[in-house]
Structures are given as C-alpha cells and as structure tokens.
Amino acid sequence: MIAVYCDGLCEPNPGGIATCGWLAFDGGELLHRHSSVVRRGSGATNNVAEYGAVISALGWLLANGYASRRTVVHSDSQLLVYQLAGKYVVRSPNIVPLHAQTLDLARMLREVVFRWIPREKNAEADALSREAYRNALGGQSREERARKLTPLVARVGVDLYVVPSQSNPRKLYAVNLAENTCECPDFRVRGRKLGYCKHILAAREFSRTA
C-alpha cells in the first residue's frame, strides 16, 4: 500500500502565498517528498493549497509507475477529505476545478482512499509546506520575518500594538501581548498552538526596545 501525507497553507489567507508539501511511503519506506508554491495572490487560499498537495502527489504516483497500487491519501483538512468522499458539496468556484482534477487523477489509479488525520499526525507534510513558504519568501524563518516587521510596529495602548502584514503593508493586525493574541490568519490557524506568530514576535521585540 502507498501512504501519502499531504498538507497546504496560505499566508495570508486568502490572497497570499499558497504552498504545499507531501510525502509518499511504500510500506513505510519513503518514496518521495515534495514542497512547492501552488498559487500566489488572487485565488490563493488554504483550501487551494490543500488540493494542490493532493493533485501534485497523485500526479507523481501516476508518472512514476504506481498506478496499480492501492493508495491512501492522508490529510488534516476535513473539508478536503469530506469533499473528495462526496460527503460535502463543493461550492467555491476556486475549488470546483481542483476537486474535479483530483477525482480524475484518482480514477487513473487502482484505488485511492482519502483519510482525515489530526494535525499532529501530519507534522512532516506541514513542515514541507512551511519550507516551501519560507523559500518563497527567500528562505526567511518566522523569527527573521518578525525582525523585519519590528520597526513598523506601533503601540496603541497598554500591551496593545498594531503590526502590518508583511505581504500587504496596508493591512494591520492588532496584537495583545497581555493575552498573547493576534488577529492574523496565521495565528488563528497555527499560532494558538505555537503560542506566537511573527506579528507577536515583532511586537515583543518592539516592546523591549521602545
């Protein structure tokens, strides 16, 4: 059995840089790992990135002689898995063609099962999608990006700051250091678990030097 683990992200979401990462295993042995940019700007979303990962993985399997093997595709996107399983209706104009393309590719393989897994069991694919995002930004880590934002931070109250989006400086995010929260999409999706995002890091650095 071929086991594929896929993930995707878009920062900021929507309209930012959508990237994907995936790994394919044959009986526990790594066959291939991949990370890339799926889309930039208009039309780029987390869901587009998630579909991009699956499309890329299935395409690779077909191109490399694995069409006759049973394949299980794992994703931590419940929306993607349920849409591909026919449990959810696809309504987004951006997703309709990607959904159709994914199913077309799946039909070319012997058997494909789409399976949801918790985010913590998809860490390697998540890391690959983040690697692609960092590479798209010139290889910068979240900490490095935070340092570039620090001079642009403005204090608006006690422990309250506004920090601009790195991809769209006109977009401002409110950071509350007392509550350790940020309004940015990255914090809502992943930052709560990590305990920070680049905007929180930038505000912390600003507060130490101001």
Give structural notes:
It is elongated, with a radius of gyration of 19 Å. The chain has helices spanning 46-63, 78-84, 96-107, 123-136, 142-149, 185-194, 198-209; strands spanning 2-11, 17-26, 29-40, 70-75, 111-116, 154-157, 160-164, 172-176, 181-182. A 5-stranded mixed sheet has the order 3-2-1-4-5. The protein has a 4-stranded antiparallel sheet with strand order 6-7-8-9. Helix 1 (46-63) packs parallel to helix 3 and helix 5 (142-149) crosses helix 7 (198-209). It has 2 domains: 2-136, 2-Layer Sandwich (Nucleotidyltransferase, domain 5), CATH 3.30.420; 142-209, no CATH class. The protein is an alpha+beta fold and 210 residues long.
Biggest sheet details? 5 strands, mixed
Pattern of helices and strands: EEEHEHHEHHEEEEHH
What would CATH call the homologous superfamily of the largest domain?
Ribonuclease H-like superfamily/Ribonuclease H
Please state the structural category: alpha+beta
* Portion of residues within helices: 25-40%
In spatial order, strands of the major sheet run 3-2-1-4-5
Name the average pLDDT.
92
Poorly predicted regions are: none
The number of helices is 7
Tell me the distance between the termini.
Answer: 57 Å
Q: What is the fold named in CATH at topology level of the largest domain?
A: Nucleotidyltransferase, domain 5
CATH class of the largest domain: Alpha Beta
Q: Give the domain tally.
A: 2
Strand content: 25-35%
CATH architectural label of the largest domain: 2-Layer Sandwich
Shape: elongated
The overall strand count is 9
